Amino acid sequence: MKVITSHQNLDFDGLAAMIGYNILNKDSKMVVPPKLNQNVRAFYSLYKDMFPFIEKITFNINEIEELIIVDTRDENRIGKLKDAVGKVNKLVLYDHHLHKNITRTPTYELCEEIGATTTILVEKIKENCLDITSIEATVLALGIYEDTGNLTYNSTTTRDVKAVSFLLEQGAQLEIIRDYVTLNLTDNQRLLLDELLDNTNHISINDYQIGVSVAKQDEYLNGAAILVHKLMEIENADLFFIIVKMGKKVFLIGRSKREEISIPRILKPFDGKGHDQAASAVIKDVSIHEIKEKLIESLKLRLPVHICARTIMSSPVNIISASTTINKAEKLLHKYGHSGLPVVNSNQDDNANKEELLGIISRRDVEKAKHHGFGHSSVKGYMSQKPITITPDATLKEIQHLIVSNDIGRLPVVDNNDNLVGIVTRTDLLQIQHGIENKETEKNNFYLEELEKNTTDITELMTKRLPDKVMGILYLIGKKADKEGYKVYGVGGFVRDLLLGKDNLDLDLVVENDAISFAKSLKNYLNGKLKTFPQYQTARLTLPSGKHVDFATARIEYYAFPAASPEVEQSTIKQDLYRRDFTINTLAVKLNGSTFGKLLDFFDGAKDLKEGIIRVLYNLSFVEDPTRIFRGIRFEARFNFTIEDQTLLFMKNSLITGVLDKLPGEKLYEEFRNVFYEENFMDALMKMDEIGIFENIFPDLKLNENKIETISIIQDILQWYEQRSYNKSVSKEVLIFSCLFYDQPAPIVSSLSERLKIPTKIREVIFTTINHENYLTKKLEEDLKNSELVELLDGYPLETILFVLARKDNKSIKEKVYYFLENLKGVGISITGEDLKNLGIKPGPIYKKALEEVRKARLDGIVSTSEEELEYVLDFFAKKGERLNG
């Protein structure tokens, strides 16, 4: 049973999100909480019969297999269904409140910082092309309109607006929406509003205008949250808080117009919950005046200083043009003492008042490009294009988030016309940060807060997807690391595939300080066999089960020249992850006991996994290691992902500079072979052709339509062959290289084979396949007996036969080849040389000839039993004039 529910005091966003999920999953049951907001109650009483709502839980909670909670992450707000949270097989969350309250890690969650939870469900409805009724569209629109203040709150995003636009296209009725979103205040609400207006105090902290008001009610009054918005509008405040005593409880509700301010953070001393611009708390046994004093103390402590980009940016900006060489850029960086410079159109002068920004070139980019011999190239090919920019009014919080989450050192400031007007650097931000008197320890280093946001516990996921023995090994390794004083992490493909739900039990672990020493300490602990590689600072531990665990010291890599083998030095886990190829491979999971299962995501790898993006970490990654070009293409094909635009551009630029020329042929062959053995190798080959790899290595080679069609057929033939479970394996590289090379002259094929250092045996089969294709085709068009067909094809490698099958769209040829493979190739005979010896025939070359003749007879249906084979061989020798015993 699937059950959907939402929070008590249900608002339209919660109600609409429930309905949205039910549209997507018709077999789910919607359980409405007993307490509904006033306007929702009015709507519900009129329209409830149009939806399959359940008001009372009459079923056994233990029968729930999947529980879906929308518009809240707090299990204490879902009533009786709270008891099901720890019992259900699957727990699913949809929300736009990012503060984590639920005690169990969800099986699946989609929680995003947007105006309304309903927007997430509407996007899925649109994505799945589902039809919805006018009333469904109306209630979905109500959910978005109410939670975004009719699309006016700062939390509103373009996604919310697009969702409403879609719903209006589906027939959402604005007259109904108007009746419920702008519901008139009740008499009691008006009385409370008047009391709050009379009791409002205005205070100013860090240039923010704040309203705080108090009131008392004998009984609980629904809809007090509506009044906070009205008070904020009436008083024109940046923030407004009301403290209302209702019965024995005090309700503290806060709202903000300023997106840089987190209301839950301000209400932290009261255990407040909500999203950044709207939160509340319920307090017992404390007077409203004590709460007010404590609130003002929290505001003074937690409100950020009101600083924007305009107040801290540097202007005018030192710039360079896109045509500037790397050498000149280096001199300018040294001259100005900057770590990076904005790059503008080549036809611009040095006046930064009206500059079209193209990108950013950093000192690190320049140093690496120069180190690899590209000093005379223009910066355009090595700059970061489409840089992240901010407006002059960008808040400190926005600047901080962009710099930390994107690991960048500077943010260009542009006006409404995208003209460059200034620049804010990490140094500017740190100076501001340290120039403020911080009264709260947790604010001393804003990186910590960002890091915590990027840390997720995946212990439950690991337990669910990894075999018990593997989990046991990881726990023991973490426990030993604690004891020995090491930090150890699971990294790379193991973590990536764990999150993707794919099988990958290759345990790659990174150790901070010394992997070899740590692995030695584990040798006896896990009763394993150890092999160390000091030059690479790595070790491999083989367990009694045969399972390997690979250990590597956290390290940075330095490339002496393009495509060189890296030199390594010890580093931290973050630096180790930064040296990796793509963001999706930068995820790590902590294995130490106290933090076991914590996911580290410094570079938004999880986000790129979710969005299906292949993104490189830095500009010169492909110059330093060209094999990453092939790996990116393989990952795109394997996971059906998309290589991000700038990453694709970096690939193309590196090819233009000739980085593949520096790769040894053996390495190139290995990379091609790896591509060929991907399941979706056709997609990978198409991408290789698209970005110019074939043209770069083989100027005369074209991946034309005929070759693409042939390779597609080869893919189908290989699938067919593998399904037959034949004993002999097929060399994919022979088939695909043969397809790529078949239209080239023999000297060119030899040259290409030598460039790729194709192994001699593979090369010979490729030559045979290309050179004998036409001969085989002509012979197969003849009318052949079974024995003649076998004699023809048995003399060729399997790959040559399959290549002919793929290349020729001839029914007769296909029938012969398939018949040979399925019915003739494995046909043998019963008699042996021993039988011939028993007949008195002197052993010699004639044995082979005799047995071959018997096999031909068997293939052609002349004989079918061992007795008939003996008779046939007797006749054979009689014709030869051989004298037999007896």
Automatic annotation (TrEMBL):
<keyword id="KW-0548">Nucleotidyltransferase</keyword>
<dbReference type="InterPro" id="IPR001667">
    <property type="entry name" value="DDH_dom"/>
</dbReference>
<feature type="domain" description="CBS">
    <location>
        <begin position="383"/>
        <end position="440"/>
    </location>
</feature>
<keyword id="KW-0547">Nucleotide-binding</keyword>
<protein>
    <submittedName>
        <fullName>Polynucleotide adenylyltransferase</fullName>
    </submittedName>
</protein>
<dbReference type="Pfam" id="PF00571">
    <property type="entry name" value="CBS"/>
</dbReference>
<dbReference type="InterPro" id="IPR000644">
    <property type="entry name" value="CBS_dom"/>
</dbReference>
<dbReference type="InterPro" id="IPR032828">
    <property type="entry name" value="PolyA_RNA-bd"/>
</dbReference>
<dbReference type="GO" id="GO:0000166">
    <property type="term" value="F:nucleotide binding"/>
</dbReference>
<keyword id="KW-0694">RNA-binding</keyword>
<dbReference type="GO" id="GO:0000049">
    <property type="term" value="F:tRNA binding"/>
</dbReference>
<dbReference type="InterPro" id="IPR046342">
    <property type="entry name" value="CBS_dom_sf"/>
</dbReference>
<dbReference type="InterPro" id="IPR052390">
    <property type="entry name" value="tRNA_nt/polyA_polymerase"/>
</dbReference>
<dbReference type="InterPro" id="IPR043519">
    <property type="entry name" value="NT_sf"/>
</dbReference>
<dbReference type="Pfam" id="PF01743">
    <property type="entry name" value="PolyA_pol"/>
</dbReference>
<keyword id="KW-0479">Metal-binding</keyword>
<feature type="domain" description="CBS">
    <location>
        <begin position="313"/>
        <end position="378"/>
    </location>
</feature>
<keyword id="KW-0808">Transferase</keyword>
<keyword id="KW-0129">CBS domain</keyword>
<dbReference type="GO" id="GO:0008033">
    <property type="term" value="P:tRNA processing"/>
</dbReference>
<keyword id="KW-0820">tRNA-binding</keyword>
<keyword id="KW-0819">tRNA processing</keyword>
<dbReference type="Pfam" id="PF12627">
    <property type="entry name" value="PolyA_pol_RNAbd"/>
</dbReference>
<dbReference type="GO" id="GO:0016779">
    <property type="term" value="F:nucleotidyltransferase activity"/>
</dbReference>
<dbReference type="InterPro" id="IPR038763">
    <property type="entry name" value="DHH_sf"/>
</dbReference>
<comment type="similarity">
    <text>Belongs to the tRNA nucleotidyltransferase/poly(A) polymerase family.</text>
</comment>
<dbReference type="InterPro" id="IPR002646">
    <property type="entry name" value="PolA_pol_head_dom"/>
</dbReference>
<keyword id="KW-0460">Magnesium</keyword>
<dbReference type="Pfam" id="PF01368">
    <property type="entry name" value="DHH"/>
</dbReference>
<dbReference type="GO" id="GO:0046872">
    <property type="term" value="F:metal ion binding"/>
</dbReference>
